[in-house]
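Contributing new records

If you add data, match the layout below exactly. Sequence lines come first and carry their own label; structure lines follow with theirs. Keep one chain per record. Anything else will be rejected by the validation script.
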Amino acid sequence: MTHSEESAEIQKSLNLSWKEGIPAAVMLGIMDYYVIPYGLFLGATVLEIGLLIAIPNLLASITQLFAVQVIQISGSRLKFLTWGTALQAVLLIPVSLLAFVSLEKRIFILIALVTAFKIIGNLIGTAWGSLMSDYLPENKRGHYFGWRSQIVGIAGVTGVVLAGLLLFLLNQTNRALAFFLLFSSASILRFSSSVLMSKMADLPLHYQPGSDFTFMMFLRRFRESNFVKYVLYVSSITFAVHLASPYFSVYMLKNLKFNYLFYMSVHLSAVIMGLIAFPIWGKHADVVGNAKILKITSLLIPLIPILWLFSKNPFYLMGVEMFSGFVWGGFNLCTANYIYDAVSPAKRVRCLGYFNLINGIALCLGASLGGFLAEHLAPLFGHRLLSLFLLSGFIRLAAHFFLSKKFKEVRTSAKHVTSAKLFFSVVGIRPISELNREWNVFPSLKQISQKST
């Protein structure tokens, strides 16, 4: 294959990637925002909701130890992606049928099915991230992924809205039917995502002598490895965040008695603001590097659960979640992009797997401990969950101050700017000169491709 033919195949794959991302985003929106309400509908307690989050993520993380072997057995990254997404679609069928099953502890069947779904999903994420990072040069990843996240995010917003309206309209008549329609639709969307993904270009997986190393060898390099320090930093924040994050939904539905319309609106506020934030953070990451943005956003992340303490008004909480969506947009985007920059292609699948393993264990520990503390902490303003939110905020802050200085930017082309200058540029007051003051929040794929050549 000539260079021009390979470039054409990559361009085609980048086009297919965002198209595939549209049904994937709707499906993930349903799983991310409505599996907890589904668990509550099936009769789950607060502790069982914690298990619904913790167990799938723990077991899915452990399987990351075998990510390289699974992809090698599959024959290629693309082949695994195609079959993995199809298998996820199959698993969503019994998830939807649980709505009509009359068992006292249906929640444990849901936990088992979600666990299998998450195991495959985590492996898919590792393979997808490795393949996509091979498609793009390092100085264009922030721009492309920010743009792609915005496009597929719009689809995700549409899915969250339609799902919330469906639950709201059928809540009083047939909630079981509503949840069945929700998750069966997610299954169909996952099948269509699999079909689109199968048409992408399958680049060979890089291999170099010395790229194989065990998990214990990875951990032993903590003192000298910038990347291992970075993994500890992100995982510590993940632990602190998931002490509380599964229980915001519980707080709204059980404590504040929000209907599904208000529940959807609060979550949607974060999603919409994230759509605006992704390309802004992405363009800045291409100039100043990912580490700078990670550190400024992790300083703001502790404010989010603390802001939930001051009012129960849904419109106030929508404002809090708009702030949350903007901040998390930068952190989440740069979390993955930092890995792509820090790790060579030959080691990328393995390092992504180890990162997901450690991060998933942190998520599991946080969600499990949060479920226990949610039933044992002293109430704050009449609610134990508010005490949990406050505790989560303090631990997030500690993680930032103790660990954010331990790792450094790896991109040599990154421009050094102060945090204040970056902040004013992000909010559009005084853009840094490298952005050319060309503030296009909605760039086209053609524009990105032209700048990549």
